[in-house]
Design goal:
Blueprint (H helix, E strand, L loop, with lengths): L3 E13 L3 E8 L3 E7 L18 E9 L2 E11 L8 H17 L7 H16 L4 H15 L21 E3 L3 E3 L1 H7 L2 E2 L2 H12 L12 H19 L5 H13 L3
Parallel strand pairs: 3-5
Antiparallel strand pairs: 1-2, 1-4, 2-3, 4-5, 6-7, 6-8
Helix pairs in contact: 1-2, 1-3, 1-7, 2-3, 3-5, 3-6, 3-7, 5-6, 6-7
The protein binds zinc ion.
Length: 252
């Protein structure tokens, strides 16, 4: 192991011993890495500003007994503003948990990094609903992880799902005849088209996602179940997304 320099977002930080933290980092070139930030909780530590979740920084990592230690860091972006608004903070924290679970260890993760970086910057600076950004994030994470749901074409037969479609927790959208056989939750064509568009949307444009109320409600009804079924994670996402949507529906 040689010293290495990585640009990374802090996905998680866990206090360790008296003044250390163990950081889980996501970098475009190396994927997920774990590194100890020694002494970072001391007030004057130069590592303090980069040792908390959401921070994007350049880290110089040095090997120590087979593990990485942060030797230096330079903060590039703290995404400070996302901490000022509870729904945005909640959505961003959920996104980091799912990104951590999906990230490959020690291999490139350029697309995942871009997704995380763009989503954090929009939770911090854009004005579209935090709920919609999280729904879009989860759909894109599913697609990246190889769990792309069927949307405007039936997941069984490939026919159009424009009329009387249902959404299946295993395959995604089903046409009327396949849905009649397998079941699933009735889903409007506009919702399926919104899913298709969000999956195809460049990450840099995620700030444009603002869903009509009816589409958001249908996505809340079908997406968490599909996500849980396919990834085996995120049992809490349904309640979390519904809570976020309710909070954002109230005038501040
Ligand atoms: Zn079909």
């Amino acid at each position: 192991m040689l010293e290495r320099k990585v640009n990374a977002v802090v996905l998680r930080s866990v206090d360790y011993r008296e003044s250390d933290r163990i950081l889980t980092l996501l970098s475009p070139d190396c994927g997920k890495l774990t590194a100890a930030a020694r002494g970072c909780r001391r007030l004057k530590s130069p590592l303090l500003s980069c040792s908390q979740p959401f921070c994007y920084a350049e880290f110089v990592l040095a090997p120590l007994m087979g593990k990485w230690t942060v030797r230096q860091c330079a903060l590039k972006e703290s995404f400070y503003d996302l901490r000022l608004h509870y729904p945005r903070l909640t959505a961003a924290a959920a996104a980091l948990r799912e990104a951590e679970a999906a990230a490959p260890e020690d291999q490139p993760a350029k697309q995942l990094f871009l997704l995380v970086y763009c989503a954090l910057s929009f939770w911090a600076y854009a004005e579209n609903p935090a709920t919609d950004l999280l729904l879009c994030f989860l759909l894109k994470l599913l697609a990246l992880s190889g769990y792309l749901p069927a949307t405007t074409r039936c997941g069984v037969c490939g026919q159009s799902t424009y009329k009387n479609a249902r959404f299946d927790a295993d395959l995604g959208a089903l046409c009327a005849s396949c849905g009649a056989l397998r079941g699933g939750i009735p889903t409007a064509p506009l919702t399926l088209e919104a899913m298709r568009r969000m999956i195809a949307l460049p990450e840099q444009d995620m700030k444009k996602v603002a869903l009509p109320g009816a589409v958001r409600r249908e996505l809340l009804a079908v997406l968490p179940g599909y996500y849980l079924h396919r990834t085996g994670r995120g049992k809490e996402l349904k309640g979390l997304l519904e809570g976020l949507a309710n909070m954002e529906a109230r005038p501040e």
